[in-house]
Amino acid sequence: MSDKDDLFEFPCRFPLKIMGERHDQFAVTILEVVKQHAPTTSEADLDVRESSSGKYLALTVTITADSREQLDDLYRALSGHHMVKVVL
């Protein structure tokens, strides 16, 4: 896909939704994975919500995305992480 076919104009703010089973270190661990690909991301960019049953956590991390490649790499890293069930 060429840059002009891309739906995004970079850089842009981009929300990632990440879900996983509830774990004390889930949010901290996932934020560290995100920061490897988007180093300017901080806890202020993180929103944590618990499922109604309390079994799962849903994170929304809003990053400043610089390229489609960065987003693709980040999605691969998150999707392959053992604590992550879903990335949207």
Structure write-up:
- By secondary structure, this protein is of the alpha+beta class.
- The protein has helices at residues 26-37, 68-79; strands at 12-21, 46-50, 56-65, 86-87.
- The chain has one domain (3-87): Alpha-Beta Plaits, CATH 3.30.70.
- The radius of gyration is 13 Å and the shape is elongated.
Class from secondary-structure proportions: alpha+beta
Helix segment tally: 2
Morphology call: elongated
Architecture in CATH? 2-Layer Sandwich
Q: If strands are numbered along the chain, what order do they take across the biggest sheet?
A: 2-3-1-4
**Uncertain regions: pLDDT < 50 for 5+ in a row?**
none
User: CATH superfamily membership, which one?
Assistant: ACT domain
Number of domains: 1
What is the share of helical residues? 25-40%
| Topology pattern, helix = H, strand = E | EHEEHE
Quickly name the level 1 CATH class.
Alpha Beta
Report the average pLDDT across residues: 94
Tally the beta strands. Answer: 4
**Distance from first to last alpha carbon:** 20 Å
- CATH-defined topology: Alpha-Beta Plaits
Rg on CA atoms, Å? 13 Å
The fraction of residues assigned to DSSP E strands is 25-35%
Biggest sheet record: 4 strands, antiparallel
